[in-house]
Amino acid sequence: MDPLNNLEDTIVAIATPMGYGGIGIVRLSGTETLRICDELFVAKNKKRPSQFKGFSVHYGWIVKKTIQHSPVSHEIIDEALLTIMRAPRSYTKEDLAEISCHGGVICLRNILSLTIDSGARLAAPGEFTKRAFLNGRIDLAQAEAVLDIVQAKTDAFLRVSLNQLKGDLSLELEAIREALMKV
């Protein structure tokens, strides 16, 4: 089986453009999302991410486990906010997490590497939207609108694309389909 078509994998990607910025986001989606977050995120309130409610944001640190001392200790990689969105009420209809951290290239790559070391697979371009489509959250016209929004060069094109994402084109096509079926 093609590993890029396996919907059972937990996927990860840097969701913000590479470069230097105040904020960078690493996004995970899949069945192992919360387990991976449990390994990497230490909340200030000491709760584990698997205990967090959906649609919640938590302050803490991304850490790497080290075995220099007994018991296992942690090396802080970055300060972060962890946003948890639980299935089926997320963009992909899977458990989804976003790690908002500092936007430096090294910091983002380190966090990405930690998630991969913990069992996630690097997402292919557009794979989060592909999962949203395959899981029935959006239709094909809406999936295509996502790329159009990202690539919009004018306000008018952005408005058209946002309406398509909202489902306007799909509703018009469905009305035409219904009319044809009656004929």
Question: What do these coordinates show?
Answer:
By secondary structure, this protein is an alpha+beta fold. Helix content is 37%, strand content 25%. It has six helices and seven strands; from the N terminus they run ββαββββαβαααα. The chain has a seven-stranded mixed β-sheet with strand order 3-4-5-6-2-1-7. A hairpin with a 6-residue loop joins strand 4 (56-66) and strand 5 (73-85). Helix 3 packs antiparallel against helix 4 (140-151) and helix 4 runs antiparallel to helix 5 (155-166). The longest helix has 15 residues, at 168-182. It is elongated and about 75 Å long. The N and C termini lie far apart (43 Å). The model has no long low-confidence stretch (mean pLDDT 92).
